Amino acid sequence: MQPIAENIYQIRLPLPFALNHVNCYLLRDDDGWTMLDTGLNWPESHLAWQAAFAELQIELAQIRRILLTHMHPDHFGMAGHFQAVTGASVYLSPREAEMAQTVWVEDGWRQEVSSGFWHRTGVTDALLTTVTSQTTRLRQMTMPHPTTISLLAPETTIRMGGRTWRAIHAPGHADGQLIFYNQDERLLLSGDQVLMKITPNIGLWPTTEPDPLGRYLHSLQSLALLDVRLALPGHGRPIEEWQVRLAELQNHHAARLTRMIDATGDGSSTLRLAQRVFKFDGFSDHEVRFAVAETLAHLDYLVRQGRLVCEEIEGVCLYSVPAQ
After folding, report:
1. pTM for the full predicted model
2. Domains of the chain: total
3. pLDDT (tens digit, 9 = 90+) per residue, 92-107?
């Protein structure tokens, strides 16, 4: 736990992945506390929250509101638990609430439902089982689910931490992700949209809205219009050079798109391209599924631009450079 600004505290929670932590935030007001994101529901997260509550002398009844930037398990995971023990309302954007219902409550990415989607990427039966079993494992760390979710629309203003924040729709990493901007102090709670050391995963998943990479790049252009002194992200250290970091992310994806085109050859599946672009040696099962989903998002973007074409053979999409 570390103080970031007056009435804002960052809580760094452990994760069982290569990306080994998530940043959550506590914001204090006169009538109680707002929790921004919650971490996975597993024992290490419980211990970290208990330590933070003890250091800040917070009673559970003082947690009045739970805001979630998006429904990914490392942000959503303990929302149901904390709603049960505090009675606080849980807030998500309408699209992220829909996705939480589909993926976590209804188990909408289970193997028998999503196998067609993954088969089209060229994954083997063994890898399909690996990919979908990871979702099952993560789903278990989002239980219990919130009994009710309140909807928070983009452009809503909300008071927390003694400040007024504007909720901004920031898609790409998640369809309906919300980030929160305070103009007076030029502060941004940036979720997973902009991270300092790593690039956010932009993946195309079984129920993702079309063109996630295109929507992400457009979002970066919009976010460049904000005057940001300090951005507080969902992972890694705070971002102080906002415009510099946005430019780095845009350049990264431009280079990644070029590399995808160069790697296609005469026709390659999503899986084969992912294996060429990413270093699969030493990847965990969790990282493999992210690499395939991110590769697919870039290929989808290139097809939409006419820079690649897809030919479907036996249900698998093979990508190649269009004939001149």
Report:
1. 0.96
2. 1
3. 999 999 999 999 999 9
